[in-house]
Amino acid sequence: KKVLQGWFYQGKPLFSQLDSVLLVIDLxxxxxxxxxxxNELLDKNCLLTEGARILGIPQLFTEQNPDKLGH
Length: 71
Hints:
Oligomer: single chain
Strand content: 15-25%
Structural class: alpha+beta
Strand order of the largest sheet: 1-2
Shape: elongated
């Protein structure tokens, strides 16, 4: 697998997909309804998650109190 080149500091890469993770926090329906620009937020998160998938970057998703807020 090809390692993507990230930003560099003193000639050394600061990160690559081998030491990166995408963390998506609380994109639950009830929380999203309370936010302005929710469609834009969802579109940008879809772009991020698709990019991470293509680049082989692991993804973690969190949810707060799914019994009350939904999945």
